[in-house]
Design a protein that fits this description.
Blueprint: H1 4-16, H2 20-33, H3 44-57, H4 60-70, H5 78-90, H6 96-104, H7 111-117
Helix pairs in contact: 1-2, 2-3, 3-5, 4-5, 5-7
């Protein structure tokens, strides 16, 4: 049986070689296995890098699905919201629901949030 940590290690290797798309695929696999292995925690540096990449280059659907899976492992945070906000804004989608979600989780808008929101056309 493959453990999420195995996929996490492979994801870190790809991330360290700047192959973020491959790291993303491996981390998705790790998150799918998390339900059976609750003690695992993903590498926060790799997670933040993948979130940044998704916000800048990923589809809104990929960003939302990844954050939804990630939220089973770690609580929602500003970086997770920022990735989904950026991906949705780039796709021309509305983001009011996401901003309401930030308020629900008591995540205040910061300068980075305002910068992201300024991307709205």
């Amino acid at each position: 049986m493959t453990l999420p940590n195995s996929w996490g290690v492979v994801a870190t290797g790809f991330f360290d070689k700047s192959e973020v798309a491959k790291a993303f695929s491996c981390m998705k696999a790790a998150l799918c296995l998390y339900a059976e292995n609750k003690g695992w925690k993903p590498n926060q540096r790799v997670i933040n890098g993948i979130l940044s990449w998704l916000g800048d280059e990923g589809s809104a659907e990929d960003a939302e699905a990844f954050v939804s899976s990630l939220n089973t492992v770690i609580p929602m945070n500003r970086e997770m919201y920022h990735a989904v906000l950026k991906a949705n804004i780039r796709a021309g989608k509305e983001v009011h629901r996401l901003l309401d979600g930030m308020k629900t989780y008591k995540i205040k808008e910061d300068e980075e949030t305002k910068k992201i929101l300024s991307m709205i056309q």
